[in-house]
Amino acid sequence: MTFTALVATHSTGSYMENECALEGFNANLAIDFGAFGIIANSIAPGTVRMGMTRDLLNDLVVADHFTSRVPAGRVGEVKDIASAIALLADEDAGFCKGTKTRLDGGYALGSYTGSWSQ
């Protein structure tokens, strides 16, 4: 899942519908299999620097477009996502069932266009 299931954007209707379906599927997995010790959680990453976004984010104008809207002041890194997955999949997180964790640097909180300290 990505953050598009949380924040409607122009021209993403069918993609958003699929994301919402995955959210429901995750909830069903948690309900149907949670009692058997199976962990079913999901993540909703925002923009992450990786192979498919590398060229896009190398454009400084595009990169600024993303970072100016994120309270974290940066795009995500693969390690940010991997760390959250490890936490959610850990046996110690066994009480965490059907959770969707936003990993978007705060993007889904709303339109952020400046420093918190200003």
- Note the gap between the termini: 33 Å
Indicate the low-confidence ranges by residue numbers.
none
Query: Could you give the order of the helices and strands?
Result: HEEHHEHE
| Rg over C-alpha atoms, rounded to the nearest angstrom | 16 Å
The computed structural class is: alpha/beta
Task: Tell me the strand order in the biggest sheet.
Answer: 1-4
| SS element count, helices | 4
Helicity level: 25-40%
Overall 3D geometry? elongated
Largest sheet: 2 strands, parallel
The percent range for strand residues is 5-15%
Q: How many β-strand runs? A: 4
Q: What is the overall pLDDT average? A: 84
Q: Can you describe what's shown?
A:
The protein is 39% helix and 10% strand. With 118 residues, the chain is α/β, with parallel strands linked by helices. It has a domain at 3-46 and 76-100. The strands form two sheets. Strands 1-4 form a two-stranded parallel ribbon. The radius of gyration is 16 Å and the shape is elongated. The mean pLDDT is 84.
